[in-house]
Design brief:
Layout: H1 3-6, E1 8-19, H2 23-31, H3 36-43, E2 46-57, E3 61-65, H4 72-76, E4 87-92, E5 95-96, H5 102-112, E6 113-116, H6 128-132, H7 134-137, H8 143-156, H9 172-185, E7 190-194, H10 202-219, E8 222-227, H11 230-236, E9 239-244, E10 247-252, H12 254-259, H13 264-269, H14 275-278, H15 281-284, E11 286-287, E12 296-299, H16 304-311, E13 318-323, E14 326-332, H17 333-339, H18 346-351
Parallel strand pairs: 3-8, 3-9, 6-7, 7-8, 12-13
Antiparallel strand pairs: 1-2, 1-4, 4-5, 9-10, 11-14, 13-14
């Protein structure tokens, strides 16, 4: 096994899900090229997932996004077999979990994967502490034994001292913090987060995103995060997978997708994004030693908005790009201006 293969925590191969009375018969039509609308019209079956192939790397955040009905929530529920596929493989650490019996699946759900839900999913008759320790309680661990661990993570998510409260006594944002503490207390390698912040007010949602990134910087979990919000996806994702009608339209590093949309669907998806705030210096810089006069230094992870501000709008500025204190390239203002113009997709270009 190569190092790259070892770095893959979850791998999905040729995954299909068809909802209906005879999905196997409908599979023949899907494999012959029939799409979601036609399958529904001719066979009264719903195409949930259509030949999904993607790798989720160890210690990274993979964001799966798309509009309502795109298949993203269906996909995440295949990772712990809450939904059974019509065909395909789901590999965790190289093993196909579709071959596992109920005993191994229960162990997977209790110990290897934790889940954070949109609607919090806290038990109302249990205290905050008991909810945070629920994953350990299901393994037969007593409250006296999990209390220290649960309190540690409640403290870490900003809920120190709230262990004796009940969910109805907390705000929505605080309840979701309990959900994250519960996932962390389980000490699972993989965190599944299904629209985890969608029910929160915008300011609280931003705080939760920041908290997740802060925790991830320390813990390096393998996180699979579902969202319909592109701003959230671009902020959180190491690897972005965009679905439409149950199929992967484009996947890759978010900066690359923003600069190189694969088709008109993606182009429309990213059209209204504040590119200056999202794009990073590393995505548009020129590698190698800078030539000519240098106006200053910028970090490779600075966004373009900050560089424009540093240049005070002047188009003749030329910056040295730094990575961990060492120069790695240069960035001139004309390159920034070009990057701020939305790219045409390859599909759109072909039509012209």
């Amino acid at each position: 096994m190569t190092k790259q293969e070892k770095d893959i925590k979850v791998s999905i191969r040729h995954l299909y899900k068809i909802f209906g009375d005879d999905p196997q018969a409908a599979m023949e039509d899907v494999k012959a090229g029939m799409g979601k609308p036609e399958l529904l019209e001719t066979r009264q079956h719903v195409l949930g997932l259509n030949d999904i192939n993607t790798d989720m790397r160890r210690g990274e955040i993979t964001v799966i996004m798309g509009l309502s009905g795109s298949g993203k929530s269906t996909l995440i529920r295949h990772l712990n077999r809450l939904i059974e596929p019509t065909a395909g493989e789901v590999l965790v650490d190289g093993e196909n979990i579709l071959d596992w019996n109920e005993t191994r699946l229960r162990k997977l759900r209790r110990e290897q994967m934790s889940m954070v839900f949109q609607k919090f999913a806290l038990l109302p008759h249990r205290t905050v502490l008991e909810n945070a320790g629920m994953a350990l309680a299901t393994r037969g661990i007593s409250k006296a034994d999990f209390e220290t661990e649960a309190n540690k993570w409640l403290d870490r998510v900003g809920l120190g001292g709230y262990g004796g409260q009940y969910p109805h006594q907390l705000s929505g944002g605080m309840q979701q913090r309990v959900g994250i503490a519960r996932a962390l207390t389980s000490n699972s390698d993989i965190m599944l987060m299904d629209e985890a912040f969608s029910a929160l007010d915008p300011l609280i949602r931003t705080d939760m995103q920041d908290l997740l990134l802060e925790l991830q910087g320390e813990l390096h979990k393998t996180i699979i995060f579902i969202t319909h919000d592109l701003d959230e996806a671009l902020k959180l994702a190491d690897h972005l997978v965009i679905l439409n009608d149950g199929r992967v339209v484009q996947q890759g590093e978010p900066q690359h997708i923003l600069l190189n949309p694969a088709d008109p669907y993606i182009e429309d998806f990213v059209a209204d994004i504040n590119r200056a705030r999202v794009l990073r210096v590393r995505s548009v810089m020129t590698e190698g030693a800078p030539e000519g006069d240098i106006s200053g230094e910028v970090d490779e992870n600075d966004n373009l908005e900050s560089v424009i501000a540093k240049a005070e709008g002047a188009l003749d500025r030329h910056f040295r790009v730094m990575r961990e204190g060492a120069p790695v390239g240069s960035l001139a203002m004309p390159a920034i201006m070009r990057a701020l113009v939305p790219a045409r997709s390859s599909g759109e270009t072909a039509k012209r």
